[in-house]
Amino acid sequence: MQIIIVGLRRAGTTEFWRTWRQDKRFVCYDEPFNELNRHVNDPDWWEKPFAGKEKEDLWERDPLTFWNYFAPIYRNEELKRGMSDHQEAFLSWLLGSAENVCTDLTRCHFKIADLKRIAPEAVLVHLRRPPQNWLTSIAFPSSTKLKWIKSRRERTMRRLTRSARNAVARRRFWTAQSGFGFHGYEEIMGVGPDSFFDFRIKEAGMDPEMVRGMPLVGRLLALWKLYGQEAEAAGANHFGDRFLSVNFNTFCKSPDTAIADVYERLGSEMPTFDFSGIHAPPSPFDPSARQWSEIFEELDIDRQWLTAGRES
């Protein structure tokens, strides 16, 4: 059995993926295409626990083979359709490393045709977080993940200033041109009319100049729309009834329903899960503000996503 999860950073894919660790039949890989996996064997890397024990075990079994296959998807490649031969070989190797594999592929919305070719019998899950909640989690990150900071003392001081940073973020939420979070979205969008972001905007029927002229909130919501539309259309087209679209907010309310849907598509019996650690995400920032409606209208985003977020 194979489960592939796609979703934006901060969409809740880690929470969803972590659930599958409870089924001991599965080996679960978290974000294997993340470039930070190059630190998998670095004992001093402060974020190593987030890499996932399964990847560390895979590296420890055969380091040379791991490095021969390892092929990250960098941020400037995420909006590009298709994988390189090296990236395809890396994913094939990972999926073949165990009889049953669940993997979180946050960088693969525009590579779903490749996923189908590599894993034709997999179940593809698109985890989608309502846009207001998603954007709020980016503007007000729960932790500071500055990868280059090695000093524990400096990291502690950064965390102590989180409340001050969030206060600044609240004041500039609707007008900021840059500086939300540390998740790489500004790098993904790039600059100028020759970026993949602009190409994808044109394909989606939006005006690149209009989008580029919006504050960061608007550009990020345009990116949310691009990724979501691509995954929904390509997932249904390539995976058919083995494709499942899951609203993260709905999953948090009724996790057993979403998990049972996946097992139904796998044609396998669902074991007993403990969902006590899954909690509803925080409310979005200023959900009734008129700016949300204005941006939704400007980008032609379905108004059903406003405030509470649509349930799947």
- Count, helices: 15
Point out poorly predicted stretches.
144-149
The helix content, as a percent range, equals 40-55%
By oligomeric state, this entry counts as single chain
Output the helix-strand order.
EHEHHHEHEHHHHHHHEHHH
DSSP summary, beta strand count: 5
Structural class: alpha/beta
Compute the CA-based radius of gyration: 19 Å
Largest sheet: 5 strands, parallel
Global mean pLDDT = 88
User: What order do the strands of the largest sheet run in, or round the barrel if closed?
Assistant: 2-3-1-4-5
Strand residue content = 5-15%
Distance between the termini: 24 Å
The backbone outline, from C-alpha atoms, is globular
